[in-house]
Design a protein that fits this description.
With 306 residues, the chain is of the alpha+beta class. The protein contains eleven helices and twelve strands. The chain binds heme C (HEC) (5 copies).
Length: 306
């Protein structure tokens, strides 16, 4: 009997120690923990996030330059926010600013960790279904959110940018034994596959002109979208004669900085007269390339005709 009481007591003490150990995750302000603390258990999600642009929001070169090496105060809060808030209530996290938009920005508020489920976690947590709604992203992505709202949306931001697949929230032994498979949102929010689904590109080869049509079929907002960065989609049409010599080349640039993004579902049609030197057996080619300064180009779509 005595033994049982002692063991039960020890277990209780251990449980309390564990709980209080993870209570530090609920601290905010200059005691906010680093994302590395979450990586102890949420390895897959941490791995995806660390490759995501949210993780680089504060340290990337374009932001560093455009904010005059962090001297423009009005720019900083959104790029390393303490917590989710309306656009004009965002506050800069006083610590770990190099982590940009990190785990605690999106999951920690009111000294509580919020998730879409209602699970028994090692730390305290509460359910908040707003994580599954586009409004969750709106405070920081106001211009894109407005475009999305007016596009009679069928999918949320999360359904495209954080698609859910089956996996474990905690793939680390021994906790992995106690965590069944669940639906996990992908924390790498933009990737080549998504960009390749953004648009359709087609052409018609005529006797004296060619017609190129590009349609924003897959975004739910303008292509590209945003008001701060320099994001572009570049449509290049090229005509070569039978001998392979280029006789025509033209670029159309859709750019966030010029405000010329293609609205959702809109088709842009270009008619190019055939140059005299094209001959009868000319070849035509069109490509749509995703360009962000300082990153490798990504081919979003292409069209070819002999
Ligand atoms: C606390 C503010 C904040 C919240 C909340 C937020 N974002 Fe972002 N997001 C940013 C910032 C700042 C960047 C710019 C990152 C950079 O510097 O490249 C960004 C970048 C992105 C990008 C990539 C742009 C690029 O540079 O390629 C996508 C996609 C994106 N966010 C989607 C979302 C979605 C979807 C949500 C909601 C689930 C969301 N964001 C929530 C601030 C936020
Ligand atoms: C000691 C391991 C451990 C650490 C460290 C940890 N978590 Fe968790 N977390 C868990 C477990 C266990 C669950 C529940 C998993 C399950 O049942 O599938 C969970 C669940 C969650 C959920 C989902 C809650 C819900 O009900 O929807 C969120 C969000 C979360 N953790 C965020 C975080 C964040 C943010 C950090 C870092 C500050 C963190 N976790 C650190 C173990 C951990
Ligand atoms: C830009 C905001 C954002 C950031 C940064 C972010 N999360 Fe999430 N997280 C979300 C959203 C939104 C969901 C709900 C997605 C869903 O299930 O569709 C979510 C879901 C989760 C869940 C529950 C499983 C799931 O996918 O539903 C866990 C656990 C979690 N996040 C942990 C983390 C950890 C750990 C980090 C840091 C490495 C992190 N998150 C960074 C927005 C974010
Ligand atoms: C139907 C799928 C879909 C939905 C819904 C969607 N996006 Fe996107 N998003 C994309 C695709 C595809 C791209 C890449 C092509 C592009 O440039 O627009 C993208 C790109 C982005 C970018 C990077 C800038 C850019 O244009 O490359 C940001 C930021 C972004 N989305 C935020 C959001 C936010 C915030 C929401 C919700 C309000 C949202 N997205 C809803 C598919 C979607
Ligand atoms: C309300 C939130 C918010 C504020 C304030 C903000 N940004 Fe951003 N920033 C974003 C988001 C969201 C993105 C992602 C693309 C977009 O929507 O333009 C971004 C992207 C960027 C990028 C592109 C990063 C890359 O990877 O290429 C630069 C540069 C940038 N911001 C500079 C600034 C500067 C300079 C200021 C101050 C004048 C500022 N931002 C203020 C939210 C914000």
């Amino acid at each position: 009997m005595k033994k049982i009481v002692i063991i039960a007591g020890l277990v209780l003490v251990m449980l309390c120690l564990v709980a209080s150990k993870y209570d530090s995750f609920l601290e905010m302000g200059d005691k906010t923990v680093k994302s590395a603390a979450c990586n102890e258990c949420h390895k897959t999600i941490y791995g995806d996030w660390s490759k995501d642009f949210h993780a680089k929001a504060y340290v990337n070169d374009p932001f560093k330059k455009a904010s005059n090496a962090y001297s423009k105060q009005e720019c900083l809060a959104c790029h390393a926010a303490q917590e989710i808030a309306q656009e004009n209530s965002l506050k800069l996290r006083p610590v770990h600013q190099d982590e940009g938009i990190n785990c605690t920005t999106c999951h920690l508020r009111n000294n509580m960790i919020y998730g879409p489920y209602k699970l028994k976690a090692s730390h305290k947590s509460e359910k908040d279904e707003s994580l599954l709604k586009s409004e969750f992203c709106a405070g920081c992505h106001q211009p894109t959110y407005k475009e999305w709202q007016t596009s009679s949306p069928q999918k949320t931001c999360q359904e495209c940018h954080m698609p859910r697949t089956e996996g474990k929230l905690v793939p680390v032994f021994p906790l992995s034994l106690a965590t069944p498979k669940r639906m996990v949102g992908h924390h790498l929010q933009i990737n080549e596959g998504l960009i390749k689904g953004a648009a359709s590109l087609s052409g018609q080869k005529g006797a004296d002109s060619i017609v190129i049509t590009v349609t924003n079929t897959g975004t739910g907002h303008a292509m590209p979208t945003g008001k701060y960065g320099d994001y572009r989609m570049v449509l290049t049409t090229q005509i070569t004669d039978a001998g392979g010599k280029e006789v025509f080349s033209k670029e159309e640039i859709f750019s966030t900085q010029k405000g010329t993004g293609v609205p959702f579902k809109k088709a842009m049609r270009y008619i190019y007269p055939l140059p005299a030197g094209a001959g009868k057996a000319y070849k035509a080619k069109a490509t749509l390339v995703y360009q962000v300064s300082g990153r490798p180009d990504i081919l979003a779509a292409s069209w070819n005709a002999e």
